Each structure stands twice: as C-alpha cells, then as structure tokens.
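Support case: PRP complex. Customer-provided input:
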Amino acid sequence: MLEKDRYLTFALTKGRLADKTLALFEQVGIECREMEDKNSRKLIFVNEELGLKFFLAKAPDVPTYVEYGVADIGVTGKDTIMEEGRRVFEVLDLKLGKCRMCVCGPAEAKQLLEHHEQIRVASKYPKIARDYFYNEKYQTVDIIKLNGSVELGPIVGLSDVIVDIVETGGTLKENGLMVLEEICPLSARMIVNQVSMRMENARIRQLVGDLRKVIDEKE
Ligand code: PRP
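Agent response - structure generated as follows:
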C-alpha cells in the first residue's frame, strides 16, 4: 500500500448502479480492474495500490454496512437511504439513476387524496409512505408493504394508491395508472460513516471534491 495506513472501504449497490458508480470513479483515477470481469461472482475487490476495498451489496444493506463502519463509504439510491433511516452522513449527489418518488394510482384516486380519505397505500417503501402521509400531509392512511410489482396494488384492488419510483412512467402507463403527487426527486447518493468522516477526513474530502468536479462538469 502506498502511504495509506488502512483501506478505505466502499459498499456499492450490486448491479447497474455499481457499474455506473465505478465508471464515475474511474474519471477521478479510482479503478478496480478486478471488478471488470462481469462473469465473476466475487463480492469483495481490492486495489492494493490505492488502498481501496470495494464490496457489492444489496441496496437496503448498503446503509447498514456504512452505519456499522464495516464500510467507510456507501453508494446507493436516495430512496433506500430514506427508507432505511440509518445514522450516516449523506455527502454527495452522484446524479446517477435520476427518478422520482411518487404517489400513483388511477385518475379516480385523485379525489380520495384531495379529501384526505383514509385510503390504502401499497408500497415497497412503507417508511417513506408513512412519513409523507402522516408528517407532510397529515392524512391517516393504511400502509401495506409489498416487495415489488407494486403497480398491481390498485389494479387488483389491494390498495387505492401506491407510493413508488417513477422513472420513464412506462410501467404506470401500461397499467392504466398515473402520477397523482410527487414526493421527492431521487438519485444515487454517497454516504459516509460518522466515525470515518472524522478519522479519514482528508481522503474522503479529497474524493468528494474530485467527484463533485466531474459531476458538475457533466451538468
Ligand atoms: C421500478 C419501480 C417501477 C418501475 C418504474 O420497479 O418500482 O415499477 O421501476 O420505472 P418506469 O417509470 O421507467 O416504468 P423495478 O423494475 O425496480 O421492479 P419492482 O417492481 O420489482 O420493484
């Protein structure tokens, strides 16, 4: 290792987001050749020269690894960060995977929202849904947790609306649903462990500064 006392460890979100994150990292001189083999099932990768370690985790586990300090730094979606509610510092918007968290449903459901009816809300994100309805809209609702294909909720009559991610809007359209209210914009964020932020401050600030420059240039 080169003048580094310890590895700086990254938890990345397995799949497309990890690929995009690494492509961005490469632009600031951080690379991990080992990870380029797409057929590999390995989960941990090391760049000895730069003193960096990367591991690939499922999105909801990324903030967990970071809160416990197993990873110094994590990259995952704002949706996951909000839903998990872990004690971590969010330090940078990578502006990757931009989409929106929305309340969606059939057009008729708009009235139910306007009249603050006690509706049923299906979501993969029960915490975000609860925060939005209870703390922002002061509307009492029943939240039903689903694990995917949430658009089914209003179609089969499980719920009146859903709280879900909308990217192109294609899934909604194909299922006769629409955006009724927008909760917040989403994108990938970099999070940092609270102790690492103090102990590795110089390395982390340098990295965040370098990445910010590249991201701003793209805007
Ligand atoms: C996400 C989200 C929507 C869809 C939105 O689902 O939950 O269903 O993508 O994208 P669009 O607006 O471009 O159509 P994902 O593909 O992650 O699968 P899931 O339904 O199993 O969560």
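The longest helix spans residues 201-218.

Case will auto-close in a few days if no follow-up is received.
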